[in-house]
Amino acid sequence: MAVIEGDFQVDDAARFAVVIARFNALATEALLAGCRDAFARQGVRPDRLDVVHVPGAFEIPLVARRLAETGNYLAVVCLGCVIRGETDHYNHVAGQAAAGVMHAGLATGVPIIFGILTTDTVEQALNRCGLKGGNKGADAALAALEMSSLLRRITTNGRRAFGFEPLPDPTPDGA
After folding, report:
1. CB-CB contact of 112 with 106 (8 Å)
2. 47-83: buried (b, 16+ CB within 10 Å) or exposed (e) per residue?
3. What are the Cα distances from residue 73, in Å, to 29, 67, 114?
4. What is the pLDDT of residues 46-66, one digit of tens each?
5. Is 8 strand, coil or helix?
6. Torsions phi, psi of 22, nearest 5?
7. Buried b vs exposed e over 87-122: b needs ≥16 C-beta within 10 Å?
8. What does the mean pLDDT of the chain come to?
9. pLDDT tens readout for residues 115-155
10. What is the dotted CATH code of the domain comprising 16-162?
């Protein structure tokens, strides 16, 4: 049985894009800081990371898809924050942003990572931006690295990855 997994290793030529919503900037800027930090810790130089600002979460999928279609990026990270209010506007924005990000990734074959917070309160949003621990922007950066690596391995291994030619057994005794 072949097991294929991604990792977090990056070559010097790798480029990534981040699409970030300006709306709820207190949260989204903290997500971006975590995202940049995670990329840097994994060896992605700042000049290999392009950041594109959009008005809100609803606009993220279109720009993410356009960036992916350029062929310049191994992955696109989407960062935003939708906080529930007094109307059902939240449901429309959060649902369409999620669906749009998914469709953009499926349409382009480029990993487009969903790093859009959908919370009930500002406090919940800030807690997910590093206030209490963990930063979903950093998590999204790591997901971008892993998914881009995984897709490259599937493409690189081609037929071998799917059982036509078995991959070598990594254990010395075959157990």
Report:
1. no
2. ebbeeeebebbbbbbebbbebbeeeebbbbbbbbbbb
3. 22, 7, 16
4. 999 999 999 999 999 999 999
5. coil
6. -75, -30
7. eeebeebbeebbebbeebbeebebbbbbbbbbbeee
8. 89
9. 999 999 999 999 999 888 799 999 999 999 999 999 988 87
10. 3.40.50.960
Which of these, 92, 25, 31, 20, lies nearest to 63 by C-alpha position? 20
53 is catalytic: no
Q: Please, what sign has the CA dihedral across residues 39, 17, 82, 98?
A: negative
* Strand stretches in the chain, DSSP E: 16-21, 49-54, 75-83, 112-119
Output the pTM of the full model: 0.86
Tokens of 165: 């030619």
Going from N- to C-terminal start, the domains of the chain cover: 16-162
CA 15 from chain centre, in angstroms, equals 13
* 119 within 8 A of 84, measured Cβ to Cβ: yes
Rounded Cα–Cα distance for residues 1 and 161 (Å) = 10
Among 89, 24, 32, which Cα is nearest to 55's? 24
